[in-house]
Amino acid sequence: MSTIKANTLLHSDGTTTTQPSIPALDQRMAKAWVSYNHGGNLVKDSYNVSSMTDRGTGLGTLNFSTAMSDANYAVLGLDIDGGGENDNRIFGSSGPFSTSSFNWFTGYVSSTITAVDLNDGDRVSIMVFGS
């Protein structure tokens, strides 16, 4: 593993940056993320997530530690069921986004592929990108 050490970071034009901000990378980095066991209501690891609210089977709310600047952020989620059943897993948003939180759901596509059956995922991973 390599280590980078610097006393001053510079833009390509020679002007200094405000550490630790590197504007060129800011929009490409996740503003929040979490690894969560919904069935056990357990946050395994997170960044900028103050808490996860269990709203019932397959339903939750992610609460930010530091609010987003607006509600136009993007959310990417993954739901894994460790038991091997219900392989057609799905993650989605189930309500309006606010700067402080958003609602989400997990489940699986039914065998008839006409409905989503809500249930708790063993490992729900959520990433949030925005300004």
Describe the secondary structure blueprint for this structure:
Layout: H1 23-26, E1 32-37, E2 42-47, E3 49-56, E4 59-64, E5 74-80, E6 89-93, E7 101-109, E8 116-118, E9 123-129
Antiparallel strand pairs: 1-2, 1-9, 3-4, 4-7, 5-9, 6-7, 7-8
**Helix segment tally:** 1
Shape: elongated
Output the helix-strand order. HEEEEEEEEE
DSSP E strands, number = 9
Question: Explain this structure to me?
Answer:
With 131 residues, the chain is mainly beta. The protein has one domain (28-129). The mean pLDDT is 83. The chain is elongated. The strands form two sheets. Strands 3, 4, 6, 7 and 8 form a five-stranded antiparallel beta sheet that branches. A four-stranded antiparallel beta sheet has the order 2-1-9-5, with no helix packed on it. Helices cover 3% and strands 44% of the residues. The protein is built from one helix and nine strands, in the order H-E-E-E-E-E-E-E-E-E. The chain has one helix at residues 23-26; strands at 32-37, 42-47, 49-56, 59-64, 74-80, 89-93, 101-109, 116-118, 123-129. Strand 6 and strand 7 (101-109) form a beta hairpin.
